[in-house]
Design brief:
Blueprint (H helix, E strand, L loop, with lengths): L1 E5 L10 E5 L9 E11 L1 H8 L14 E8 L10 E4 L2 E3 L5 H4 L10 E2 L11 E5 L3 E3 L6 H4 L5 H12 L7 E4 L3 H12 L4 E4 L3 H9 L4 E3 L9 E6 L4 H8 L2 E9 L12 H4 L5 E4 L5 H13 L6 E5 L3 H9 L6 E5 L1
Parallel strand pairs: 10-11, 10-13, 11-12, 13-14, 14-15, 16-17
Antiparallel strand pairs: 1-2, 3-4, 3-8, 3-17, 4-5, 5-9, 6-7
Helix pairs in contact: 4-5, 4-9
């Protein structure tokens, strides 16, 4: 089959992904084989390709926002031909203290799609049958793909931040995940305040109906109840913290962060403000979000790349040239 694969992590300017023929995967017990329809491009893919996350597999097919059809390994609930989605969490051990207590996103021995196992930058992929999700018919392939990580993890970020309907919510950074979160917040009646670099991202936030939009260093004109940061920058975390009311929460939606600089505790954190990290997602997050996405007809803005342009897609994500989400098709 045709796939884009990584042998040696390096800067995306060096085009580290190679496109070529690799063996078609064979599903194991409790796995399904998918014919890939589309695969969303996530900033985590970029961290993997560039080596910000340590290399696990010597010959890796990235991609963890997979839309595909089951062609082998189906079940009564998920027969052959079912269109399903695959996300970042590709499996858990099911027996650690976190799995047993309902927080499988913190599993001690998880499987990560497109990182610890091969992903969806390919014509075919395999996945655990109990970690795939039927997709609402209202969501077509291109618009469903970005929902499978950027959407789900953004939704979990709102849960981690404790967002309640009608609260003032700040989004710091406005890439793929943030623009999907905006639609959810609007469905909940929450005013949305966006601070982000890049004129095109600010224009998109304005077009999507944000209450206020400012540059990366600008402070929203009101105190925020909750904030979510999307940029892999500790400076952005401090900026979000500085915008909170007492008792407010910042949720950090990033798998990799450069550092958090020293800040004034008395001015920024005291008053029972909180900083929380967002780690992965649960299957319940995925099911709840996909159901909501179907109900509100969530349609992300997408830019499509052919598989042999995978390096270009990742470079565009890195340089913030994509408004919304990038999606790879074979």
């Amino acid at each position: 089959m045709k796939a884009a694969f990584l042998i040696s992590p390096q800067g995306i300017a060096n085009a580290p992904l190679t496109v070529g023929d690799v063996p078609k995967p064979v599903p194991g017990p409790e796995q399904v084989l998918l014919r890939v329809r589309a695969c969303g491009v996530c900033r985590t893919d970029l961290h993997i390709v560039e080596g910000d996350l340590p290399q696990i597999l010597p010959h890796l097919i990235p991609g963890h926002q997979i839309v595909g059809d089951i062609i082998e390994g189906g079940s009564t609930e998920l027969p052959a031909g079912t269109r399903i989605g695959v996300s970042w969490i590709g499996g858990t051990d099911g027996g650690c203290r976190y799995c047993r207590s309902g927080v499988e996103n913190l599993c001690d021995a998880p499987t990560f799609t497109g990182y610890t196992v091969n992903g969806g930058y390919a014509e075919y992929a395999v996945a655990r049958r109990d970690f795939v999700f039927p997709l609402p018919p209202a969501l077509d392939d291109l618009h469903a793909a970005p929902l499978l990580c950027a959407g789900i993890i953004g939704f979990r970020s709102l849960r981690v931040a404790g967002v309640q309907p009608g609260e003032r919510v700040g989004l710091f950074g406005f890439g793929s995940s943030a623009h999907l979160v905006t639609a959810v917040l609007q469905a909940w009646g929450c005013p949305v305040y966006v601070s982000t670099r890049g004129a095109s991202h600010r224009a998109l936030a304005t077009a999507l109906g944000a209450t206020w939009v400012g540059a990366e260093t600008e402070k929203p004109p009101v105190q925020l109840d909750r904030a979510v940061t999307f940029a892999p920058s500790g400076d952005v975390v401090v900026a979000a913290l500085a915008s909170l009311r007492k008792g407010g929460v910042v949720a950090i939606n990033a798998i990799h962060l450069d550092r958090i600089p020293e800040f004034d505790y008395d001015r920024l954190l005291w008053g029972e403000r909180q900083i929380r990290s967002v780690a992965n997602m649960t299957r319940e997050d995925a099911k709840d979000f996909l159901r909501l996405a179907g109900e509100i007809n969530l349609r992300p803005k997408v830019t499509v790349f052919q598989l042999d342009r995978g390096n270009e897609a990742l470079a565009a994500v890195k340089s913030d040239q994509i408004d919304g989400a990038a999606v790879i098709v074979v």
